[in-house]
Amino acid sequence: MSLSLVKTGAVAAAIVLATTVSSMAATYAYVDHDAWVRANHSNLAPIVNSVEEGDYVKILAHWGNWYKIKIPGQDGWVKSGVLDFAPGPGPFPGPGNVQACFWGPLGYVCVNG
């Protein structure tokens, strides 16, 4: 009987993992206005790059009102007010499409669908 419970648990874990991986669609946003990109999610962090109005960026992580973005050159963090999550050519983060949030080494990271 305990072997069947282990098998059932393994199948359930595989289903959860497959569902989680398939729902981790990339999240993107447009840059609303020119801004500095910082090394960390703090106004005191060193500036490592910049973005310009209209740039299309991939969201890598989220911490409070900061977003880590993937851009040409060094990736980094910008405040949420820099980004425009309006509908466009890709899935965008927002309260209506958050699938799950996890606490990790960078704080809360939300998975959007």
From TrEMBL:
Record bears the keyword Signal: yes
Domain of life: Bacteria
Residue ranges annotated for the SH3b domain, each copy included: 25-87
Keyword Signal: yes
InterPro entries membership: SH3-like_bac-type
Pfam families per the UniProt record, alphabetical: SH3_3 (PF08239)
Signal peptide: 1-25
Record's keyword terms, sorted: Signal
Protein name as it appears in the record: SH3 domain-containing protein
Organism the protein comes from: Devosia nanyangense
Biological classification of the source: Bacteria, Pseudomonadati, Pseudomonadota, Alphaproteobacteria, Hyphomicrobiales
